[in-house]
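Bug #2210: token dump truncated for Flagellar hook-basal body complex protein FliE?
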Amino acid sequence: MSIGGIEAIGGFMPLAAPAVTAPTAGASAAVTSARGADFGSMVLDGLERLEGVQDTADSLAVRAASGTLPNIHDYTLAATEADVATKLTVAVRNKAIEAFSEIMRMQVG
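Reproduced locally. Full output below:
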């Protein structure tokens, strides 16, 4: 029996560090816009991955219940992965809401 690295987990892609460049005058709006698009696409990509992991766990649950799944540990792993991914998504959402609420409480001027 061999245990592969974390890359073997379906749908896992490590995050790359963002490239840091000094913006030129007048280019800060474009940089801000590009960063916003990247964050939005990362959020959407994460939600799509979460949906895929949950769909996989659901289909394996049906196969396990019907007796057509040869290895029950495949379902157990998929269900655990879906549970952890859901908890992570909820934690990120809660932190985003907390940050937004803190920003809204800030005094201007």
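Output looks complete on our side. DSSP finds two helices and no strands in the chain. Marking as cannot-reproduce; reopen if the truncation happens again.
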